[in-house]
Amino acid sequence: MTPTKITMNTAGQLQVPDYCYIPFIEGDGIGPDVWRASKAVMDAAISHCYKGKRKIEWVEMLAGEKAFNQTGSWLPAETLQMAKDYLVSIKGPLTTPVGGGIRSLNVALRQELDLYVCMRPVHWFQGVPSPVRHPENVDMVIFRENTEDIYAGIEFNYDDPKAKLLYEFLEVNNLANKVRFPETTSFGIKPVSKEGSQRLIRSAIQYAIDKKLPSVTLVHKGNIMKFTEGGFKNWGYELAETEFADAVYTWGQWEKTKKEQDEAAANKEMKQALSSGKVLIKDVIADNFLQQILLAPKDYSVIATLNLNGDYISDALAAAVGGIGIAPGANINYTTGHAVFEATHGTAPKFANTDTMNPSSLLLSGVMMLQYIGWNRTANTILEALKTTIKRKRVTVDFYNLMHDATLLKTSEFAQEIIKSLDNAPISELID
Ligand code: NAD
């Protein structure tokens, strides 16, 4: 077999050869340790499931400190070109360069490839230490908008003449009185568009339909920011009721029926729709949502939200199921097929080359990648083996410190333990 690239056909479907190239960035700090461990598990699981009929040829892309030391550039043009050409890639954490140039390598990659969905599944694995009483009730997938809102990065420092120009614009529009301290006010601009909101929400609804999940919740701050956050909510409902009319039931429909008939009729209609498999589309204001994830997490499944809300929500939910050592992530453009799967934690430089950190975040991002390319059998087999290893309390230091009677393993030993568990993990019945 010779390896070939993953491509997308004209119908928008990924074409994944049995022996495919996948580029990786090992990352800085603890990146090489967690990447080595994750790659070892993925390779072993692929070989375990497909007995040589399928394989990944990993190709290294340079980024971060390693790239800077070798090429003088934090994010070489060849790396961006490779990420574009090969469609699907995976990366460890990268140092954020201090001062000048690129604000963040991750943000640059997301912007350059227009990866508009930041997807974060939040699921608890039995035995993982958690600060909440019922972490098993948390089972959500966050779709965070990845290109607008604060990620647009439009800000003007108070002493920048452009801040003065903005202030003048406010004066002309009789809004200057809203700025209490004009001399020292910095400004930020929050762009939110209909297309940007709808492509994100479309992906979230389609995901819920494909995975037969019960609801999509639009989380927003539209009570205060009517046109940006409120726009996100309204455009979301509009999209649901037009493009997905046959597959969803919205709170708006419930309200309409209640108004035209009565509450009992609306409840009956909703119950019927949901029992026939329709996805419920609802919305919650962001601050309330942060309460709800502690009080009633079972009520939420797929979450669609703008960039800043998504940032807070992702970390709060990750904490509920065991923290950043185990939280995976993906950045996806479903239209072009481009996707970068990544560990959600940083480079933890203090622990670089100690072989002590938890590789689960990157490994689970790899599982998401395998699901994305349709190798579900391997993805599920890794999940089962990881669950077994955690249940046996054979874990890295972050979990070890919070568990009773656990066995402390190094990063590499934890990977070997998962590989050993592959033999006992049932090869998933899923047809790839
Ligand atoms: P960090 O996530 O690197 O580390 C914070 C702490 O979390 C660590 O000290 C460690 O105790 C714990 N931790 C992190 N990863 C872990 C793992 N896999 N297993 C167990 N424990 C783990 O955050 P930071 O110290 O704020 O950032 C360090 C650097 O990483 C900065 O340069 C930052 O910009 C960068 N960063 C990169 C990414 C990314 O590439 N996606 C994300 C966040 C931060």
Notes on the structure:
The chain is of the alpha/beta class and 432 residues long. It is 42% helix and 17% strand. The chain has helices at 31-50, 64-71, 77-85, 105-112, 161-172, 194-210, 229-243, 251-260, 263-275, 286-295, 307-320, 360-372, 376-391, 397-400, 411-422, and strands spanning 7-8, 14-15, 19-25, 55-60, 88-91, 117-123, 139-145, 154-156, 187-189, 215-220, 248-250, 279-285, 302-305, 328-332, 339-343, 394-395, 407-408. The chain is globular. Bound molecules: nicotinamide-adenine-dinucleotide. Nicotinamide-adenine-dinucleotide binds at residues 30, 34, 93-96, 106, 324-325, 342, 345-348, 350, 357-358, 361, 398. The site of nicotinamide-adenine-dinucleotide (NAD) has 19 residues, from loops.
What is the distance, rounded to the nearest whole angstrom, between the alpha carbons of the first and last residues?
Answer: 20 Å
Rg is 23 Å
Strand content: 15-25%
Number of helices: 15
Could you say which overall geometry the principal axes of the C-alpha atoms support?
A: globular
* Poorly predicted tracts of residues: none
Summarize the amount of helix as a percent range.
40-55%
Instruction: Please tell me the overall pLDDT.
Output: 93
What is the strand arrangement across the widest sheet?
A: 4-3-5-15-14-6-7-13-10-12-11
Q: Which class of secondary structure composition applies to the elements?
A: alpha/beta
Sheet of most strands: 11 strands, mixed
Total E-strand runs: 17
Question: Which hetero ligands occur in this complex?
Answer: nicotinamide-adenine-dinucleotide
